[in-house]
């Protein structure tokens, strides 16, 4: 057995790839190059920051005229809108404007209607998209998982692999594997869990410093900003220190569902349990003491 | 209430068990060797090692042009027959410390890059997984297994913006120094 491990800065984070198989170094390296090409393609299509990306083109034009988009973006938009419908807008990719207002995403100068939401994104046949109000979208909460899925899809079935985009990871042979989840109160420590499905993604509040951190996180995840701002810092921090990992068969689902888990399990109970069961996804909560709860 | 020493210790150990186990410290991750990175970035292109030593003036000029601190006055670099460069350098981030390989073409544009080693810098214990593990009664095979499992860590996404700073610093190093060598 031979093994190759690579890491590239892509999708705004560190993307790791480990490929093991009965092949030479050169063959495994070539596979990794093909898989990283898929991730780079998604990066180029769906980057909000890059004004040349297809996403930026859609943000500039879809309110004025119908756009024919790539199969990739159409696939991600379809999944995002389905999750918005199922969660009554808790997951909402039109949160982009709030992120721009907070300085978390660059301002590309598009005028946005404050009342616009996911319902104003119209997906039509033949990969056509139209915005019925002036709005912008950000795929930051779902595209990393999609990129991981695309990378895994081009790998030869004879090798075993793990692709990890900053914590959104998928394995080809996950049944006997485990994954390490960062300790919510001390991210240089990890807790080992058995893999419960092919993919896992985690949301947590570490790596965010300063008093704005949780508000930023809520904004990044698409929570209603006003309600977050109304709380005192202690209330926000206390309710947000758990981490939530979601296991699903696709990394795109795990990526998006972990945002829904983080936002909905914070409050008393969770209003969206049906969403997780519909996708056969499982949720693992880790609290600041390192205690694990399986939802 | 007076708690005797044994009860006190027992309570401590229960508390500690809840917090500490099965947590382990996160360590460095090694990806490609320099040779593998060279092959991916430059194929079989011929190259010669070049000793690059930056003067204080050059370091200041690169610093102000790239808005990134220049930590070392030496560069581990190779020049290709076509006038391109292969550079092995270190990036220091807020949470991470990374050895990287860069390829710059003959015009100083980034042709590609590879991360060779990635170390987390949360605390001193990061480097000490094996040292710590022996006190938890783990044998060598178990430590090896941890080495394997710890590859796959899920957590909140960490930004890679320090790499952008590093690229900036190296392209300005080309503009200030390498293109004249």
Explain what you see.
The complex is a heterodimer of chains A (295) and B (181). With 295 residues, chain A is of the alpha+beta class. Chain A is 37% helix and 24% strand. Chain A is built from ten helices and 13 strands. Chain A has an eight-stranded antiparallel beta sheet with strand order 1-2-6-7-10-11-12-13. Chain A has a three-stranded antiparallel beta sheet with strand order 3-5-4, with helices on one face. Chain A has a two-stranded antiparallel ribbon with strand order 8-9. In chain A, α3 runs parallel beside α9 (251-266). The model of chain A is unreliable at 209-216 and 222-236 (pLDDT under 50). With 181 residues, chain B is α+β, with helices and mostly antiparallel strands. In chain B, 37% of the residues lie in helices and 27% in strands. Chain B has six helices and eight strands. Chain B has helices at 5-20, 34-42, 56-66, 129-133, 140-149, 161-176; strands at 24-25, 29-30, 47-53, 74-80, 85-92, 96-104, 110-120, 153-154. Chain B has a six-stranded antiparallel beta sheet. The longest helix of chain B has 16 residues, at 5-20. Chain B is globular. Mean pLDDT of chain B is 77; it is low at 6-23 and 123-144.
Keywords, separated by commas or semicolons:
heterodimer, A: 295 residues, alpha+beta, eight-stranded antiparallel beta sheet, three-stranded antiparallel beta sheet, 10 helices, 13 strands, globular, B: 181 residues, six-stranded antiparallel beta sheet
């Amino acid at each position: 057995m031979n093994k190759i491990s690579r890491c590239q800065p892509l999708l705004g984070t560190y993307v790791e790839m480990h490929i093991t198989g009965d092949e030479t170094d050169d063959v495994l390296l070539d596979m990794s190059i093909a898989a990283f090409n898929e991730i780079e393609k998604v990066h180029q299509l769906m980057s909000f920051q890059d004004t040349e990306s297809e996403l930026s083109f859609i943000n500039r034009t879809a309110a004025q005229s119908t756009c024919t988009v790539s199969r990739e973006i159409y696939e991600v938009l379809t999944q995002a809108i389905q999750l918005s419908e199922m969660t009554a807008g808790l997951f909402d990719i039109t949160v982009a404007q709030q992120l721009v207002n907070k300085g978390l995403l660059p301002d590309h100068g598009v005028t946005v209607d404050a009342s616009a939401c996911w319902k104003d994104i119209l997906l039509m046949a033949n990969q056509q998209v139209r915005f019925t109000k002036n709005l912008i979208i950000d795929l930051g909460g779902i595209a990393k998982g999609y990129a991981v899925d695309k990378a895994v899809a081009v790998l030869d079935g004879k090798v075993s692999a793990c692709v990890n985009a900053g914590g959104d990871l998928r394995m080809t042979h996950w049944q006997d594997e485990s994954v390490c989840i960062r300790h919510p109160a001390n991210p240089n420590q990890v807790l080992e869990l058995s893999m419960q499905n092919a993919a896992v993604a985690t949301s947590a509040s570490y790596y965010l410093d300063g008093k704005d951190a949780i508000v930023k996180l809520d904004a990044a995840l698409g929570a209603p900003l006003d309600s977050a701002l109304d709380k005192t810092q202690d209330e926000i921090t206390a309710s947000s220190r758990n981490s939530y990992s979601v296991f699903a068969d696709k990394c795109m689902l795990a990526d998006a569902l972990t945002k829904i888990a983080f936002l909905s399990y914070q409050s008393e109970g969770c209003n969206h349990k049906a969403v997780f069961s519909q996708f056969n996804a499982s949720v693992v909560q880790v609290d600041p003491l390192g205690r694990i709860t399986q939802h | 209430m007076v708690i005797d020493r044994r009860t006190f210790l027992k309570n401590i150990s229960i508390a500690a068990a809840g917090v500490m186990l099965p947590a382990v410290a996160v360590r460095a991750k090694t990806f490609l060797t320099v040779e593998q990175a060279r092959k991916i970035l430059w194929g079989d292109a011929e190259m010669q090692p070049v000793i690059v030593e930056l003067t204080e003036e050059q370091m200041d000029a690169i610093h102000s042009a790239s808005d990134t601190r220049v930590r070392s006055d030496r560069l581990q670099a190779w020049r290709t027959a076509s006038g391109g460069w292969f550079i092995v350098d270190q990036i220091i981030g807020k949470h991470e410390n990374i050895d990287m390989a860069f390829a710059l073409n003959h015009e100083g544009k980034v042709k590609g890059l590879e991360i060779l080693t990635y170390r987390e810098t949360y605390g001193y214990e990061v480097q000490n997984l094996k040292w710590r593990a022996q006190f938890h009664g783990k044998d060598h095979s178990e430590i090896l297994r941890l080495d394997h499992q710890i590859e796959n860590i899920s957590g909140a996404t960490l930004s890679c913006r320090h790499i952008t700073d590093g690229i900036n610093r190296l392209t300005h190093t080309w503009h200030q120094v390498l293109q004249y060598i």
